[in-house]
Automatic annotation (TrEMBL):
Pfam families, per database record: BTB_2 (PF02214)
InterPro entries in the cross-refs: BTB/POZ_dom, SKP1/BTB/POZ_sf, T1-type_BTB
Protein name: KCTD2 protein
Gene3D superfamilies tied to this protein: 3.30.70.2000, 6.10.140.750, Potassium Channel Kv1.1, Chain A
Amino acid sequence: GPAGTLNPPPAAASKWVRLNVGGTYFVSTRQTLCREPKSFLCRLCCQDGPELGSDKDETGAYLIDRDPTYFGPILNYLRHGKLIINKELAEEGVLEEAEFYNIASLVRLVKERIRDNENRTSQGPVKHVYRVLQCQEEELTQMVSTMSDGWKFEQLISIGSSYNYGNEDQAEFLCVVSRELNNSTNGIVKEPSEKAKILQERGSRM
């Protein structure tokens, strides 16, 4: 009868795992939590021995004394294998948790992300060059396909047809393209310029 629907069979219940991370509840499946066999989460759910099993709160959730803010990216990584970190979260915080939960592949990913960011910020903001090209409809595909390396297509603005040949309307477009000024050269130019100045001054004094 209806009473049966209230109590799911144990098989279904055991598939889902509740985690209480620093006071915030997360719900996931054993399959997700055991993606990384050596991880703390896998040991927690899959070896339900008396010593680990005792760490549950009154709702039956596993208690983990860690910061819940950084647990989201960890759990999502186990769900879909991608590292997604909200802008306001510090990568270092996620790294800390990845190390705590012992998820080696995620630790590697976060370290790479931090390294990339350091490289990017040390080179200052990325500068873009924009160009506006005017062309006709039939030239568009050719132009876009022959755009040289590094140029990125930004926007297409139709400026209507400027003239008709007989009955044929030729639509005119403005095509906006952009390109990053090469970071690495930026980084290289900055430093020597100071030294170069000093050398020039020395040279002029001599």
